[in-house]
């Protein structure tokens, strides 16, 4: 059973988090390089330097911006699985991450939090229901003009503090611990260049979830779809009876998508079809979609909705044509994790030992763990305390981050005990 009391430890998670969020690490989906933005390496180098200063000597950053580190086992047991803890360094391209000014709101009272650099940005408990669990806690936000970066710099800070505690508290018995910090997760490329042989882990956990006490063992399965509309161009002065605009056809297809199959019209286990980009001209237009569902079989059905709508629209444009290409992006991690129940069970026990009621959830999204699981490294997602990601009202509490650190430490012990 547990050999430590976390409240006696010197937590460094808040000061680390406040350092990390001021480093701009936005990824760029238009870039073809890895990492997609070189500035992500700036944070990677900081993390390597801090790991070395902690005493984690086996650490490095590679040419692609991935940070690897190893904390050797301190147990005599030979059969403890090698555990990896993983978080991503990039922040979303959806909202600026430049010149982030973090603010610590001490001892939250339940009142509205007005962000000073844009007073239209107000955190209200009615809109952020998890704030009701933060009374008297210290809530961190940005200043109102940028995202905060809790997604996923909260996870980075939590793993880094856990490393600090493991090195300084050898009474916490554990097997070999591996660390992996990735670039470009927000643009779907987080593990494109991850070297799993170099990593050498048996199992993994991403620390990239929301409310304290939660973990996620199920994600969407995901496809991308590219709809190409081929119209007929003609001089607009002489276009009557001739022109068939691919732009207008594409617009009609998007307008006909059912609300009940859209992100804004679905929740829970419901999947969706979401147009994310339109480009083109009269002769040809392209609509890119993302297709999501927890059931793989439904992905094809959702693609068929696009196909049927397009064909119905084209009935009014007999000279136009289309193609629809779909491409697999990632699959529901539950398909892999169900074969390894101890990975989830041990994490639920660790959450309980950290003083919380563990809650298992499905996530309406994907994580690096989705792809890692299908690359041979089973990997559920543990809470990091981050909320309202990708926007100016993003927030996290110091106490929830500390609970995440405590969960990581207990998880190391649980695996050692049960080996």
Structure in a nutshell:
With 419 residues, the protein is α+β, with helices and mostly antiparallel strands. It has helices at residues 13-20, 39-54, 150-168, 196-199, 246-255, 296-314, 334-337, 341-353, 368-374, 398-418; strands at residues 58-61, 67-71, 83-88, 103-105, 113-114, 122-123, 139-141, 177-182, 203-209, 214-219, 221-230, 272-280, 284-293, 321-330, 359-363, 381-383, 395-397.
User: Into which percent range does the helicity of residues fall?
Assistant: 25-40%
> Which value, in Å, is the CA radius of gyration?
23 Å
CATH fold naming of the largest domain = Aminopeptidase
Average pLDDT, all residues = 96
Could you give a short account of the major beta sheet? 8 strands, mixed
Report strand %: 15-25%
**Total domain modules:** 2
What is the CATH C level class of the largest domain, in words? Alpha Beta
User: Number of helix segments?
Assistant: 10
CATH-level-4 superfamily name of the largest domain: Zn peptidases
N-to-C span: 13 Å
Strand order within the widest beta sheet: 1-2-8-3-9-16-10-15
CATH architecture of the largest domain: 3-Layer(aba) Sandwich
What's the β-strand tally? 17
**Succession of helices and strands:** HHEEEEEEEHEHEEEHEEHEHHEHEEH
Globally, the shape reads globular
């Amino acid at each position: 059973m547990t050999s430590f009391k976390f409240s006696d430890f010197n937590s460094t998670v808040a000061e680390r988090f406040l350092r990390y969020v001021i480093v701009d690490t936005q990824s760029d989906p238009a870039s073809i390089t890895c990492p997609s933005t070189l500035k992500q390496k700036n944070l990677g180098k900081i993390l390597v330097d801090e790991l070395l200063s902690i005493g984690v000597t086996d650490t490095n950053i590679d040419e692609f911006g991935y940070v690897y580190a190893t904390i050797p086992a301190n147990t005599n047991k030979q059969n403890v699985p090698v555990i990896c803890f993983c978080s991503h360094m990039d922040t979303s391209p959806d909202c600026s991450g430049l010149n982030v000014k973090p603010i610590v709101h001490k001892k939250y009272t339940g009142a509205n939090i007005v962000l000073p650099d844009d007073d239209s940005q107000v955190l209200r408990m009615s809109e952020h229901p998890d704030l009701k669990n933060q009374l008297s806690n210290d809530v961190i936000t940005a200043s109102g003009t940028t995202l905060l970066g809790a997604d996923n710099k909260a996870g980075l800070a939590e793993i880094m503090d856990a490393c600090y505690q493991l090195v300084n508290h050898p009474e916490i018995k554990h097997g070999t611990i591996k660390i992996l910090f990735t670039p470009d997760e927000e643009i779907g490329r987080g593990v494109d260049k991850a070297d799993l042989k170099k990593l050498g882990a048996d199992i993994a956990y991403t620390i990239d979830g929301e409310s304290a006490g939660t973990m996620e063992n199920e994600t969407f399965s995901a496809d991308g779809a590219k709809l190409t509309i081929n119209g007929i161009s003609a001089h607009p002065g002489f276009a009557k009876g001739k022109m068939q605009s691919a732009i207008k056809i594409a617009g009609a297809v998007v307008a006909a998508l059912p609300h009940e199959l859209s992100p804004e019209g679905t929740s829970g286990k419901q999947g969706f079809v979401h147009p994310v980009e339109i480009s083109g001209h009269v002769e040809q237009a392209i609509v890119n979609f993302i297709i999501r569902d927890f059931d793989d079989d439904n992905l094809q059905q959702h693609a068929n909705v696009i196909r049927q709508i397009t064909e119905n629209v084209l009935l009014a444009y007999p000279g136009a044509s289309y193609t629809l290409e779909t491409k697999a992006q990632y699959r529901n991690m539950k398909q892999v994790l169900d074969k390894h129940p101890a990975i989830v069970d041990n994490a639920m026990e660790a959450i309980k030992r950290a003083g919380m009621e563990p809650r298992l959830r499905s996530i309406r999204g994907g994580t690096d763990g989705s792809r890692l699981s299908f690359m041979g490294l089973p990997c559920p997602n543990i809470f990091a305390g981050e909320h309202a990601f990708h926007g100016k009202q993003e927030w996290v509490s110091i106490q929830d981050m500390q609970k995440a650190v405590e969960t990581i430490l207990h998880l190391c012990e649980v695996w050692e005990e049960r080996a």
